[in-house]
Amino acid sequence: MKPAPFDWHAPETVDAALALKAAHGEAARFLAGGQSLVPAMNFRVAQPGVLIDLNRVAGLDSLDWLADGSLRVGATVRYRMIERDAAVARRLPLLAEALAEVAHPQIRTRGTLGGNLSHADPASEMPAVMLALGARMELRRASGMREVAARDFFLGPLTTALAEDEMLAAIIIPPLPPDTGTAFLEVARRRGDYAMMGVAALLRRDGAGRCAEARLAFCSAGPTPMAAPVAAASLVGTALTGADIAAAAEAAKAEIEPMGSVQASPAYQRHLAGVLAARALTLAAERAA
Amino acid sequence: MKVRVTVNGVAHERDVEPRLLLSDFIRHEIGLTGTHVGCEHGVCGACTILWDGAPARACLAFAVQAEGHDIRTVESLAQAPARLNALQQAFQDSHALQCGYCTPGILMTMTAFLAENPKPTEDEVRHALSGNLCRCTGYQHIVDAVLLAAERGA
Amino acid sequence: MTHSFGKPLTRNEDPRLLRGEALFVDDVELPGLLHVAFLRSPHAHARLLSVDLGAARARPGVIAAYAAEDLGDYWKPGPLLVPPPPVPGMVFHQCCQVPLVKDKARHVGEPVAMVVAESRYIAEDALGDIAVEWEVLDAVGDLEAALQPGAALVHEHLGVNVAAKVHQHRGDYAAAAKAAALVVRRRFTYDRGASIPMETRGVVAQWDPRADRLTVWDTTQAPVVIRNGLAAMLGLSERQVRVVAPNIGGGFGPKMMMFYPEEVLVPWAAMRLGRPVKWIEDRLEHFFATTHERSQIHDAEIALDASGRILGVKDVFLHDNGAYDPYGLTLPLNSQCTLLGCYVVPAYDSVFTAVFTNRTLVTPYRGAGRQHGVFVMERLLDIAARQLGIDRNEIRRRNFIPPDAFPYDQGVIYQDFSRLSYDSGNYAPILAKALDAIGYDRFIAETQPRARAEGRALGIGVVCYVEGTGIGPYEGAKVQVQGSGKVSLATGIGSQGQGHATAFAQVVAEQLGVDIRDIEVTTGDTDQFYWGVGTFASRGAVVAGSAAHEAAKVVRQKILKTAARHFECAEEDLVIADGKVHVVGVPDHSITLGALAGLANPMRGAVTPGTEPGLEATSYFGPAGGATASGAHAMIVEVDPLTLRPTILDYVVVHDCGTVINPLILAGQIQGGVAQGIGNAFFEQLHWDEQGQLMNASLADYLLPTALDVPRIRMDHTVTPSPLNPLGVKGAGEAGAIPVGALFAQALEDALDLPSKEIEILEMPLSPSRLWEISNGG
Prior knowledge:
The complex is a heterotrimer of chains A (289), B (154) and C (778).
Chain A: E1 7-9, H1 14-24, E2 28-31, H2 37-42, E3 50-53, E4 63-65, E5 71-74, H3 79-83, H4 86-91, H5 93-99, H6 105-108, H7 113-119, H8 125-133, E6 136-141, E7 144-149, H9 150-153, E8 154-156, E9 159-160, E10 167-173, E11 180-188, E12 195-205, E13 211-219, E14 226-227, H10 229-233, H11 242-252, H12 266-287
Parallel strand pairs in A: 1-3, 2-3
Antiparallel strand pairs in A: 4-5, 5-10, 6-7, 6-10, 8-9, 11-12, 12-13, 13-14
Helix pairs in contact in A: 5-8, 11-12
Chain B: E1 2-7, E2 10-15, H1 22-29, E3 48-51, E4 54-57, E5 70-72, H2 86-93, H3 103-116, H4 122-129, H5 140-151
Parallel strand pairs in B: 1-5
Antiparallel strand pairs in B: 1-2, 3-4, 3-5
Helix pairs in contact in B: 2-5, 4-5
Chain C: H1 14-18, E1 34-40, E2 46-52, H2 54-58, E3 62-67, E4 91-92, E5 104-105, E6 111-117, H3 120-127, E7 131-136, H4 143-146, E8 162-170, H5 173-179, E9 182-190, E10 193-194, E11 202-208, E12 213-218, H6 223-234, E13 241-244, H7 261-273, E14 277-280, H8 283-289, E15 292-293, E16 296-304, E17 310-322, H9 330-338, E18 347-356, H10 370-388, H11 392-399, E19 408-413, E20 419-422, H12 427-438, H13 440-453, E21 457-469, E22 475-481, E23 487-491, H14 500-512, E24 519-523, H15 540-567, E25 574-577, E26 580-583, E27 590-592, H16 593-599, E28 616-621, E29 627-639, E30 646-656, H17 663-683, E31 714-717, H18 740-751, E32 763-764, H19 768-775
């Protein structure tokens, strides 16, 4: 299990990195934390001819709060940095809660949010969380920049909206409105494994305590992270009673497309989705109170 | 290509291919064979080293990436030849190892863990251990050893 | 003198391991070392039409590449390690593994070509240069389908996929069934798992033309047997071959298998190329190339009278042998024999068919088929108890072999080919202790009803088992007092973490009165000890431990004789303590063992006829039969009623392995065994597709339990010494793993109240997904 040979470049600027990508096209892969790419290379499932290591690129490794209260996560910001940030835990508890489920500390030391999202594994927690949080992807290419919403970024298993010459330069996560509660729950075989099913829930109450907004997003539930907009919408205007939540959780099961794995049958995954959605919505409703 | 990596405080310069894994560099280029390799896909934890003080999988990084970083391995723990540090001693006292293959990775994970959390609960220890696989012990004596080391103020 | 035998002493082997100084096979670095990678079959069953190594050989950095035809006369199927048992009417077809595929591949991962290069990286690059033409054949996977007419044949010349068929019986089962108040018949299945030691396999070989000797570092559990086999294959004398099994990163059975193709090829290549050669199995290879275990289907029935007494058991089972059968029938024999458990079974009728499949070979892994037998018997008893309205523990008590019935002859042939006879045991106190420790009565009366009222699903399980351990044929040990005063002990078995360097030192220290830190134990180096068999079947402490004891006793006599001459006194007047000998009552006037070793090896004078120089002895021990350990496991489990994820709330092991040498090491063995049992019961399963492809060949997908999955295990012991060895010990290595499947099944059924829905758990391993299906009637 040794990687195939490759040319290694460690540019120091974004422009240089983008120029390399433009020059080498499909043969080149960006290397951020490497916690998904390197194992794939060790198995020789991935054999990029060129690796563009982003770890020495200046300016990609910062975690910034923008004026509008959004969090901007640079492409090489490591999970370890995010999870140790007290403000993240306070202002984006969903992110913090889900991060604790991502692999193990040794992986989070080097793993990056940007790398994970670019990898676009539908079983991974972070894409679903980005969907629930309404995050935007800042994509850079030599000729400019564009922003893509999380819901438009993930196109299929290991497939994103990134063009061949584009880099995911940053992730922008908007602030949670007041009176919002969130929860992330998953069931994995072992802690740190990819979930057999995971759900991110977000609920906002209005002044009267009724549900003003609801979002549900699942991981391991289809070819991409899966939102359940119909189920979520059914909660808006309700008092978020147990029955309201149970009905929404049941409805969400119809909105996902679990594909099954050696660990879980699709039927069991769908069952879990209902169980976890109900539990996560209940938690989020409590937290929104 | 030339790479200069500092391992356990000593700078080593070697001419290597970019694809050389850090785990292979540590073991076979500079001969520190205490770091073991169990899976080469980042799951077992046997190759855990400290990367600028934080635990990381040596099998999931290329040696060329380690230039300019401080890498520490199990060989750095004991302060003198033929001695054990407090964590190592707690491992012996608790019978926390059998074949000993996973042990160096666990020691490095726990070194970083105890530095951040010097008085952990059993549950915290088990969570922190869960990224290292041990096939021999059933973990109980490892948990005991970490708690013992913490109690002794390791 | 302070005794060390029986004390929970910390281990001699630990400091080097903890400092990262211990030598494992991949740590061996030699000048000019070459590295090997193997091209392996991507197909489970395919005819090999051609292999083209030209491009691989031409790649810079590649030294050599070999296919089967390049091996010439060296290509031959491996030896049969364990011949079939002397059971009348038995059928056995010997089909042993080959070094490289010549005609057809019979499982995914079977080696097809070998590349030797300047680095492992280059060797792997060159695998991509090899062009192979295959004709893909239907793969044999399902055990029952394999036996149907028209099934694809793993070995065509046999005409069937039957590897073996063995029928053993005692008493008249048909009569027992006729007389029974209740007959319970069920089908039980047990799927494949793997041992997955943290260190994969590896071989390094170096031919020294000046010494005319071959040195091989091998992750084997049986270095002496490897030495003998390699010598024979390579046309060398045994003395020309040194096999070293240094520190081994876990074995658990599959490193006992021999000969693996890589073990045959790497030394051959080193001799041929005149350079040292290393092959280290990577984790992906390990999933295909290192042997697996388990996968049996039992159609079993039990006949009982109205009081729950067993009248007889009948079992017909299929055993998945994998593609070849070099290990003979150890596994199904273990299943067949261990099924009888702690119980009086007046009539037993058991027949198994071992089946060739297009899957990785199956050889013993911790438990080695015993868990299958225990699973079947314990499940049958659980179901019978329910149907008879008897408490599950009471039905066990009523059937225990009584303590005055030992030695107890079970009337069948065991894996060591002797009659299965239990040497000693006393089962009722073990069960009583386990029930007491887990709080069985209170759980049933209070805890469980209260939990159920709260909507929580709590269950309890209690199961019993025996484990045949410490079988022959023999091991030996050499004890020698060094001039330094330290004592050396060498034995032929290898160690994979069992603490032999400490436990054997405790055995020797008991005789020689030295600190165990002053006893240097060498295991697994054929230059240090010539004879031996291997570390398997929980036999190290029993057989090699007893040999060490015998050798130490002889050395003790030599010490006393030499000291008596020195002090000019009677041997009876001497005391050996703290590495010195003194005359009773005169502790200040002593002589060290080192000095005595010098006196025993004089530079002048004569060693008189009939005596030997030095303080040294070599002894061998071969037990008359295996020692039968026993125990009970109990657990309380909580299951999330919706996700079906279990949490073990309490786990108790009560174990009887006779005299205990080191309780700390024993605890570690039990805990580790339970952890593997938990993995086997609820986490670990090899999944295959229709084409015989393994679907989860990574540690991300094949799930070893973590520190969060294995609970704290509470332990208690009873001691019924074995009369079959001088120490009274029984093996303990596998006991932790054996009953866990049966325990999980019972406890999970109880937690989910499945019996009330007429649902039973009849299979292993489980998972939340499968448990959800089962509890929904699937």
